[in-house]
Specification:
Blueprint: H1 3-10, H2 27-35, H3 44-53, H4 56-61, H5 64-68, H6 74-95, H7 104-115, E1 122-128, E2 134-142, H8 152-161, E3 166-172, H9 182-196, E4 201-209, E5 212-215
Helix pairs in contact: 2-3, 6-7, 8-9
Length: 222
């Protein structure tokens, strides 16, 4: 077997319990397999991370400083950041292969992966062309645990720069509850009104939380 092939296989996690699907393994075991490339299923870094954060989604979205405070090595932090980027990018690419509006379930899967476990509010805008295909995803604002400042004119200005025909607004609620607040509704209305002047459509505003997602359109708010 060529050496390149052996090296690639060495990076594939080995199931510690032959005959048992990896999908049924505990979070700690799966994380240990990834962090130690299959050599150990009781990796202390994996145990420390699960004890501190509770689940894989929260671990993958934790900030570097929070991860380091568990005592894990810098290379483990780097591995987790790479995994997060890999998973998010894979789901995003799947969501964007077709017009966003016709692949809504994939879009929701992407925004949940990207935002559901974030510790602070993030506001993003998905700018679409005339075929409702994604032109650009823009990170509009990064805020505190319960607020991200958004300026409607800037959201619309960027749409004009990208020659976008429509957009979808997305942000997360770190509290876990995706229910829109009064401030969310007011801000969305301002973006819609500003966009309408330039014939730009706001298809939806999706709020993401650990407990699920909330669609302004489905709720009759758009």
């Amino acid at each position: 077997m060529p050496s390149e092939r052996r090296s690639a296989l060495a990076l594939v996690p080995t199931n510690p319990h032959p005959g048992t699907p990896l999908e049924t393994e505990r979070d700690t075991t799966l994380l240990a397999l990834v962090l130690s490339c299959g050599r150990r299923a009781d990796d202390p870094a994996a145990i420390a991370l699960v004890e501190r954060f509770g689940d894989l989604g929260t671990i993958l979205n934790a900030e570097a400083g929070e991860l380091q405070r568990t005592g894990v090595a810098p290379q483990v932090v780097q591995q987790l950041e790479q995994l997060r980027t890999l998973f998010t990018r894979a789901i995003r690419e799947e969501a964007c292969r077709r017009p966003v509006i016709s692949s809504w379930s994939q879009l929701l899967a992407y925004v949940r992966t990207a935002l559901a476990h974030q510790p602070r509010e993030q506001f993003r805008a998905l700018y679409l062309d005339r075929r409702n295909c994604l032109i650009r995803e823009e990170w509009v604002a990064d805020g505190s645990v319960d607020h991200a400042p958004v300026y409607p004119r800037e959201v619309v200005r960027r749409a004009l720069e990208l020659n976008a025909s429509s957009m979808i607004l997305v942000h997360n609620h770190p509290s876990g509850d995706p229910s829109p607040s009064t401030a969310d509704i007011e801000m969305t209305r301002k973006v819609i009104d500003a966009a309408r002047v330039f014939n730009i459509v706001v298809h939806d505003h999706v709020i993401v939380g650990r407990e699920g997602t909330a669609s302004f359109k489905s709720m009759g708010l758009i």
